[in-house]
Specification:
Largest sheet: 4 strands, antiparallel
Number of strands: 4
Helix content: 10-25%
Number of helices: 3
Strand order of the largest sheet: 2-3-1-4
Distance between the termini: 86 Å
Order of helices and strands: EHEEHEH
CATH topology of one domain: Alpha-Beta Plaits
Oligomer: single chain
Shape: elongated
Strand content: 25-35%
Structural class: alpha+beta
CATH superfamily of one domain: Ribosomal protein S6/Translation elongation factor EF1B
């Protein structure tokens, strides 16, 4: 059997319990057709990049699937019929990851990126953040017109 990662987005106005019921419903479709779901992750209600079927947010769910193609195709057909599912994507993978997905990593891991302005690497001797007192050297046009600005 093939391994798949499947993500679907449910409408913003359904509850988390209804999303879990949808996940169970689709898992049962796969199990009836000889497949299995090794992991499910509810990613929560998240903003969409653009409106999808008049929704600005959606409930995201990830499913790691080990099933034949026919079972996955039937699950996708059922999702296409269901009005509560606004988008889905299935990708075939070589192996499933054992640890939680990137979306489920704790928000504490973001602290290693540094502060907003403080972690920009070596930017040379550029003075203060807003330009400050830094010496840029002479301007070329001042060197050419060395008469002190009294051009006639």
């Amino acid at each position: 059997m093939a391994l798949y990662e499947h993500v679907f987005i449910a409408r913003q106005d359904v509850s988390q319990q209804q999303v879990e019921a949808l996940t169970e419903q689709y898992s049962n479709i796969l199990k009836e057709r000889g497949g299995s779901v090794s992991k499910t992750e509810y990613w929560g209600l998240r903003n969409l990049a653009f409106k999808v079927k008049k929704n600005r947010k959606g409930h995201y769910t990830l499913m790691n699937i080990d099933a034949p193609h026919a079972a996955v195709a039937e699950m996708e057909r059922q999702m296409g019929i269901n009005d509560d599912v606004i988008r889905f994507l299935t990708i075939r993978v070589e192996e499933h990851e054992g640890e939680p997905s990137a979306m489920m990593q704790s928000r504490g891991d973001r602290g290693d990126r540094g502060s907003r302005f403080g972690d920009r690497g070596d930017r040379g001797d550029r003075g203060s953040r807003f330009g400050g007192d830094r010496d840029r050297g002479p301007r070329r046009d001042r060197e050419e017109n060395s008469d002190g600005g009294n051009a006639q």
